[in-house]
Amino acid sequence: IHAWTELKAEVQTDQSTQLYSYQGSAGVLSMVLKLFMFSWFGFQVKSSFDDYAEPKIRRFYKYLGVSIGAWAINIPVMVVLAFQLSPWVRYKVVTIVDIAARLLGLVILSQLFCGPLSPLSKNNTFNALTSNEVSFGFEK
User: Fold this and answer.
1) Which of 3, 37, 50, 57 has its CA 20 to 30 A from that of 66?
2) Distance CA 135, CA 123 (A)
């Protein structure tokens, strides 16, 4: 449903005259910020990978870094695609590639965090507290 609404979102405008979102100085600034955020995230994943000695957790961080890296590549690929395609097909092709990349990224991350490589377990999650165990400071 989301993919269909994205494709049909702007039916009133002439899509061949629309500028791509990364054209111009604001688009370049956005790309630079996304590159900075990806670099920071990659540094944090590498630091976490180096901090742990347990093979399962190290494997999780290795796959997390690779999957986020592959997912982050979709932005430059879409920009190159947008500049290479004809204006009358650009909007739909870029939108389809963007939605497919988002879906693939979310599936990979869902599998990573909910699958067998996930470092989450009963030992490292918070226990839910009942209202009897919580003190609000108003009781006397």
Assistant:
1) 3
2) 24
